[in-house]
Design goal:
The structure is a single chain. By secondary structure, the chain is α/β, with parallel strands linked by helices. It has one domain: 3-Layer(aba) Sandwich (Rossmann fold), CATH 3.40.50. The protein contains five helices and five strands. It has a five-stranded parallel sheet, with helices on both faces. Helix 1 links the parallel strand 1 and strand 2. Helix 1 crosses helix 5 and helix 2 runs parallel beside helix 3.
């Protein structure tokens, strides 16, 4: 089984820890963290991430803005939007930005996170 690299982007240190802990419970993930979209883009310029888990609501650069920038840097970049309270029109905007899927922070479990990441990677490979 190969290791999947995941870059978690969230302005909340608590949410960074929670998402990292969930991935640790799953096993098979190499996790890096960034506190904002700008820092994450700098990281992506130097190293590849199989998947980016990106918070939607961040100051400076939203998760959608990050996804657009990341995909201009790496068109194959897979981004999963993680949000606490998605606005009603988020799904359409996310699809246009190239987001693979949207996951609610309230419903996250190791199993859901693992399944979502694996489905995103599988879709990218097709």
């Amino acid at each position: 089984m190969s290791i999947t690299s995941v870059l978690i982007i969230d302005d909340s240190p608590t949410d960074l820890l929670i998402l990292s802990a969930l991935l640790d419970l799953c096993g098979g993930y190499e996790v890096a963290q960034a506190p904002n979209g700008s820092a994450a883009l700098k990281m992506l310029a130097d190293r590849r991430a199989d998947v980016c888990l990106v918070d939607f609501d961040m100051p400076g650069m939203t998760g959608l803005e990050f996804t657009i920038e990341a995909r201009s840097l790496r068109p194959e970049q897979c981004c999963i939007l993680v949000t606490g309270a998605p606005p009603a029109d988020l799904a359409t905007a996310a699809e246009q930005a190239g987001v693979h899927t949207i996951v609610s922070k309230a419903s996250l479990s190791p199993q859901l996170l693992d399944a979502t990441i694996q489905a995103a990677i599988g879709a990218r490979l097709q």
